[in-house]
Structures are given as structure tokens and as C-alpha cells.
Amino acid sequence: MEFAAPLARLLLYGGATIAIGRGTLTFLDDDVGVSPPAVRGALWYAAGSLIIAPVLLLLLQQQALELTAAELPGLLRETIWGRGWLLLVIACLLTALMLPLRGTRTTSLLLLLSALGIAAAMGGLGHAAADEAWPLASRLVDAVHVAGVGAWIGGLVLMVLAGVGAGEPTSAAWRAFSRVATVMAPVVLLSGVASGWRRVGASGLTDILASDYGRLLLVKVALALVVLAMGATQRRRLSAGKAPVQRAVVWEVLIAALVLGATAWMTGMEPPGA
Known about the structure:
mainly alpha
């Protein structure tokens, strides 16, 4: 069961990332659509993940608290975690229902709003919920971080998948997405720094290095910087009128997936000094 909680969170993060990416791409001038089979598969994966992950999280919480099935309604009604979980379930179900639909401006707006609702609800289930000094600000920063990752990395995943068996996305599509990534990359960086500072800012370097959370955080930061550098290289190519290097973009996505995995594992760890 050691891996159950990180797996549940990874399913949730992956599903939310793709959902936000899908909602973002629909508003670009040259949308990648949902017709390529690989894109449709990713959307169905995200929908399934958003249904399965909240159930797993509830069962794990029940097990951790040693509650019976009859006590679950009390958990959901009377605790901050329970109310946050209910909000998460509502947002996840709405998002899962709309993800496989072919996007119009209306449905895509609703999809994006419901996916952003997932981002907001996730702040109430992680470390931000335990931040007593700045509870609202901490949750807002985490929600902005999740939204930024979704618009950037989720969109990038779908752009890559759109080219599987269907030809590359057009240059116009890549340029439009590049404009989104250029805005969202700094948002992700700044919100990530702010969130990390709230978790470990009061700890010394020795304490950070001595904790599993701190060491994994440093690995996550290093991987995130690699993704940022790779993305910047591709944006320079697009600015010069060249197509992105497909292999490099795939590696960017794979390293970003490792960052999501590290985040899913870190959420269950105690920050140094907690």
C-alpha cells in the first residue's frame, strides 16, 4: 500500500494536467482537435483517471483513519479534508464527462472551468491545507501552479500526440501554443518557488538535505529547470521560423512526467521542520 497514495495522486495530477491542457488548446487560433486516435486515447485516460483517483484517495483516507463505512459520511461532512474531497469529486466528474466531447467554445470553456476547479480543490488536500499562517494564499499559489502546469505541459502532451499517425501539427498551431507556453512557464516557475518557500523556507540547507522531502524537492527543481531549458530552446526555433525538434519535445514531455511523479510522492511526505 506504500505506493497506493502516490499512484492515486499521480492519476489525479495527470488527469487534471491533460484536462487543463485540452481546455487551453481549444482557445488557440489553430486547435489540434480531438480526431487523432492518440489524442482521443489521452482524453479517455484523463477522464478515467479523474474518476478513479478521488475514489482511491477516499479509501486510503478511510484506511488511514481506521473508519468504518458508516463513519464516512461524517468524515465528508465534518472535516476540512472531507469537504475539500467533495468539491474535488464534483469538479472531477464534470471534467470527466466533458473531456471526450468534441470541443466547441462553450463546452471547452466549461471544461476549462471545471478543470480549474480541480486545481483549486487540490490545494485543500495537500500541504497548502496545513499552512496556518497563509492558508488562502498558499492554496491559491498551489492552484495557480497546477493550472499553469496544465496549460503548458498538458497542452504540450496533446500537441505531441496530435502528430502520432496523423502528421505534425501545423506551424501556426505550434506558434500559437508557444505563446501560451511563454506565459505559463514563468507562472509555473514563480508559483513553484513560492510554494516551495512556504514548505521549506524556514529550514536551513542542512535540514533540507537531511529530509526525504527536501532531497526529492531538489531533484524536482533540477528536472523542472531542464524542462524549462528545453522549452526555451524550442521556442527560439519557432521564433526563427523553424519547426520544433520532435525527439526533443518528446524528451521534454517525459521529463515533465517525472516531475509530476516526484510531486505526487512529495505530497505524502512531511516537509523539514513540519
